[in-house]
Amino acid sequence: MCENFQDVRKIEVVKDSQRVSERLIEILVSAAESVIAEKNAFTVGLSGGSMVDFLCSGFLRREAKVDLTKWKFFFCDERIVPVHHSESTFGTYKRKLLTFLPIDEKQFIPVDTSMTPSNAAIDYEEKLRKNFNDRIPVFDVLLLGMGPDGHTCSLFPGHPLLEERERIVAPIEDSPKEPPCRVTFTFPLLNAAKLCVFALAGDSKSDMVARILQNQEDFPAGRVCPLNGTVLWLLDQRAASQLEVTLET
Question: Which stretches within the chain are classed as H helix?
């Protein structure tokens, strides 16, 4: 559970899922402009699920062109399946996002899913350290989702990985959600980021959103609490329907 949530957690409620996607791109572009001006590169961690659809919709609706040449994309978790498999997160981004955005595939740093989960996690951690040159990489933005059970990345309720403190990327071979074999960022890495964004829409999210944000129940998504950054919960009206919050005007 995020103990200093009042300091790091922000909640933004918008009209609908379309506005979630638009606002998500606004947040990313604003962050990128600031970061690139300072260090000439912008690092983003991607999640699966509805996130790719939010990004596709948001970029398609944006009239102003976005220079993505200095953006670099990583994966907050990945299923150990071939890239062409429907469950592959990288494969989904290749099929959906790369088909219309001016992004070179080399800007994506994927997990090597030809390896065992254990070896893939070790390999991806080495790739992260090579790209960031830090003991614990500090991402500019991590884009996160949340399942109906409160999981985020491949960190599930009650799983031992919730307590992992040494590895920044870990294997999981007993995921309660198919497919069982995956690799995932752990909390030391998630909570080192400058900005984490949960983008959520729909009635199916409302109960868990309220349990985490209002009741402060302990679920994995609620443990995302950057030590020197911010976590933004970007919600549409339906996802926020059980919260006492104000709609964006």
Answer: 5-8, 17-39, 51-61, 89-96, 117-132, 187-190, 206-213
Residue 150 falls in which region: left (phi positive, over 0), alpha (psi -120 to 50) or beta: left
Distances (CA, A) of 200 to 57, 95, 146, 197: 14, 22, 8, 10
Which amino acid appears at position 67 of this protein?
D
Using DSSP's 3-state secondary structure scheme, residue 172 falls into strand
Tokens standing for residue 204: 């199916």
Task: State how far the Cα of 108 lies from the Cα of 141, in Å rounded to an integer.
Answer: 15
Could you tell me if residue 40 is left (phi over 0), alpha (psi between -120 and 50 degrees) or otherwise beta? left
Please write the tens of the pLDDT for every residue from 136-174.
Answer: 999 999 999 999 999 999 999 999 999 999 999 999 999
